[in-house]
Write a structure and sequence with these properties.
Number of helices: 0
Radius of gyration: 13 Å
Largest sheet: 6 strands, mixed
Helix content: under 10%
Low-confidence stretches: none
Mean pLDDT: 93
Distance between the termini: 40 Å
Order of helices and strands: EEEEEEEEEE
Amino acid sequence: QVQLVESGGDLVQPGGSLRLSCAASGSIFSIADIAVMGWYRKAPGKQRELVAGITSDGSTNYADSVKGRFTISRDDDKNTVYLQMNSLKPEDTAVYYCNGVPDFEDYWGQGTQVTVSS
């Protein structure tokens, strides 16, 4: 069964950059077995939001709020999904999670905190 562990979150100033990683492990499934992987974020008082998705063939889509600033990628050999975040804004502050798109309820990890502040 797939387990997803997010890492790379930190406190950064506006305009800064971070690279998040989502490591997957499992005896049966792997990232390569999931048609679409995505990065989600949850800010306090707001609903979970899908910010980026990537298909098995490398096609990507982004929420309008992050388009041009975030880049999602995947490395099936490393069983890892990445989110490169540039030009960060305070409104990007949230806990970031990875999961399939649509999500698998049993695969949610602990997430990684991203805080953008001066």
